[in-house]
Amino acid sequence: MEVVREVYRLVPRLPREELYGVRSQMTRAAVSVACNIAEGWTREATRDKAHFLAIAHGSAAELETLLTLCEQVGWFPERESRSMRNAIDEVSRMLTALRRRRRESPEKTARSGRKAQA
Hints:
Layout: H1 2-10, H2 22-42, H3 46-72, H4 78-104, H5 106-117
């Protein structure tokens, strides 16, 4: 959720003409990260969980790319976007670890996922 908060904190600084471009794309990617993690954890099948975690990971990569573009064209100074980049990095590391664990031991991870929901 930190990623979503950071995106909504920064996107109002984008030029008005980007309302339906980069701004929309960034907010959709951030919300996609959070929603796909949530949806994946509700799935019983290991394959379904892995699918949603992969989508969330892809959305995080998309968001990181958009942030880099915004920095490069001067819309977000690096010092102002640092906390968003840190949030994206953190969720990406978490997703990488979850996906790796799931590949190494699907049964064990599925059991621990159910416990985490309780």
